[in-house]
Design brief:
Radius of gyration: 20 Å
Shape: elongated
Distance between the termini: 28 Å
Order of helices and strands: HHHHEEHHEE
Strand order of the largest sheet: 1-2
Structural class: mainly alpha
Helix content: 55-70%
Largest sheet: 2 strands, antiparallel
Amino acid sequence: MGWDHGPGRRPDLIARQLADAVENLVTLWFSAAEDLSPRISSRQLLALQTVRRRPELNLTALAEGLGIGLPMASRLCDRLESAGLLQRSVQPHNRREVRLVVTPHGRRLLTDVTERRSRRLAAVIEAMTPGERASFLGGMHAFHQAQVLGRVRPARDGRERPDGD
């Protein structure tokens, strides 16, 4: 599908074009983790990132945060722990609660993934003209503002609609 840059662009066409761009971005995003050592799945990577962001996390909270069942979260942590990326420890105040901690090796792996992603994004952005970069940043900012500031609300039919429609 070609990119429509004309005035009066229809939101549904823009959404399709954005979906195509996001698919490319997702491919770039996940390819940065493909040749890691140890090799981990995207779900394992997400779990590791989640634990790093919320160091007080226990297994139940991780399962809820990832939208998976407790047994699956436990197996996920088993694999991360056996790879030396995650450590489980018993909470001192509640011996039945297991605390999850990213190991130094896990932190290095996450740093490596972040750096790879940044380099790959920078290469794409570098291929853009200064005007395209400015338009891209302006569009990203406007998209972020519309989403974060709550200018979109779910409609009764399940589709999202701008407030005021």
